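Every protein is a chain of amino acids, and every chain bends into a shape of its own. The fold becomes a row of whole numbers, each drawn from a learned catalogue of backbone shapes. The protein below has been through that process, and both of its lines are reproduced in full.
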Amino acid sequence: MSEEEKAIFLAAHQAQKEEEEIGADVTSISGAIDFVHRQVNNGADYFKIMIEEGTVMNAPGLPVIESPVLKAAVDEAHKLDKIAIAHVLTAEAAKTAVEIGVDGLAHLFIDRPDWTKELIEAIAAKGIFVTPCLVLNSSIIGNSACHVAHDERVEKKLNEDWKMTMCSCFNTFPEGNMKDNFDNVRDLRDAGVDILVGTDVSVPMPHLGGLAHGVSVHHEMQLLVEAGLSPIEALRAATSVPSKRFNLLDRGSIAEGLRADLLLVKGDPTINISDSLSIVGIWKEGESYHS
């Protein structure tokens, strides 16, 4: 990120903070409903609700909005024909999200309590999709993605800031383990839950490590395969499944009349998912770009 880009990012963050200070009180039902309407009028396509008490992020005790208020926001979003997803990192937060009626979970619960089976059954029964962001959970547990950053197909495309970030990690919940995450993903898939690719990348900073725009999508697909999805399922999780769940029906598949957003790769990622990184051609809306 250049100095100019950093300045723009910080200015936007400050503007958002100032807006929140004079904005609606989203801790009340009426305030939450008003906030939903204001954001729709501002052009919001969907809503993401935070259910985060902080333990996994090494900040326990964060205030969480009460469930009736969260449900009012979700219900109002649905009345306005918008989808609502919830940020969750624990099974308890995911349980709350299911109870308030969200359409999807952003992130995967990093723990695996003895009632996980019942939670997954509830997610499946309500048709909720899950975007695991395994790349994020791996970083939270303490794993960097340095091996991905130094892949010869990746390294030349990242500047030093992003390489540094990929070689760092959050490391805020080292007591976690990837086996639980992989088991959660596999059980969700087996229950018929739609799995979507997501990464949660933001800016290049060490404490936000293990992630980088673009490359983390490919890393996420690799982790999904490691969790038990087939390569084809992982590819669909990054293409046709998100387009279906977010109602972006002009993309996500290769068919006549759809947007020509295409990658040409060397190899066969339907057999070896890592081949998705061997990019030799890129088209966006039919226009060719150099890889």
The radius of gyration is 19 Å.
